[in-house]
Amino acid sequence: MNKQIQIDGELFWNIYEYFFGEDAPDGWQADEIRVGLERKIDKMLDREMFTRYKRALLSSERELWRKKYLERRGVLPDFISDTEQRTEPPEET
Fold first, then answer.
1. Cα gap 83→63, rounded to integer Å
2. Over the stretch 26-81, which tens digit does the pLDDT of each residue have?
3. What is the DSSP code string of 65-89?
4. Which own/partner pairs from 8-13 qualify as long-range (CB within 8 Å, at least 24 positions apart)?
5. What is the mean pLDDT of residues 19-25?
6. Alpha carbon 70 to its chain's center
7. For residue 66, which of 87, 86, 81 has the smallest C-alpha distance?
8. Which residue has the higher pLDDT, 70 or 86?
9. 16 touches 41 (CB < 8 A)
10. Residues 38, 19 contacting (CB under 8 angstroms)
């Protein structure tokens, strides 16, 4: 029963507020729901950052969002190269 469904954004945020608000319910089911909501929020943030990266008009803005996205995903800074700055192909040896 691991089916995906779509719900209205307002309903999603109401559910989020209910489970993370001051009067949030306790118990193992509520904990499972909180974990699921946190995962969904993480996916939504990742998607938003990736979309901003892909749709940015300026290369500097595109590079900024690309780096933020990769940092959020846990890619180490040593592996994040500045792809937008490379304008010439590497020299052949």
1. 8
2. 888 889 999 999 999 999 999 999 999 999 999 999 989 988 888 888 887 777 66
3. HHHHHHHHTT--GGG---TTT--SP
4. 12/40
5. 88
6. 10
7. 81
8. 70
9. yes
10. no
